[in-house]
User: What shape does this take?
Amino acid sequence: GAGVSQSPSNKVTEKGKDVELRCDPISGHTALYWYRQSLGQGLEFLIYFQGNSAPDKSGLPSDRFSAERTGGSVSTLTIQRTQQEDSAVYLCASSSDSGVRAQHFGDGTRLSIL
Amino acid sequence: TQLLEQSPQFLSIQEGENLTVYCNSSSVFSSLQWYRQEPGEGPVLLVTVVTGGEVKKLKRLTFQFGDARKDSSLHITAAQPGDTGLYLCAGALSGNTGKLIFGQGTTLQVKP
Assistant: This one.
């Protein structure tokens, strides 16, 4: 498809397990962003990749969170030793690196930690 | 800490009424975007405003960027049930980065 694709759409796991969330950005978009959203709330910035530059990790809430972007395209967000407070919708967005850089979002992964 | 205050957080109105949502900050933004999000989906861009004082219209929606580029408003005329959703403002800080600061969102419910 032409849009941002995220998988899985839903993930239920037990506290303490590791999870990997995947994002396929729009082809040609050099910028990729991860956000976290609690129910009905705004978006909390997590991490930002721009081309070959070092990622901006300033929003990652703890060292249990990490993200990679391979080949300038697909990205994975990994949460180790999940906690109940990690339950949220994780959204990925991509944008071009010129102009006003409108962000195009995927539909998110709803993560539930039991 | 850069912060974008959005108000009101929740709004429930009758079809046909008008409403305004506000975003305010002490920071200056190079641009400001408004998104609308429906349950189970990602936010979708409505508009981007770039110039201080700029006004953009999208059918019944009017967006304004403050003269000092620190605030913005979204006005909806004659709201329809289809306008129901979560509205998010997001500001881009200067410095040639695509990173956005999002407001807390306004949940709008338009009752028929």
User: Anything to note?
Assistant: Residues 5-97+105-109 of chain A form a domain with the Immunoglobulin-like fold (CATH 2.60.40.10).
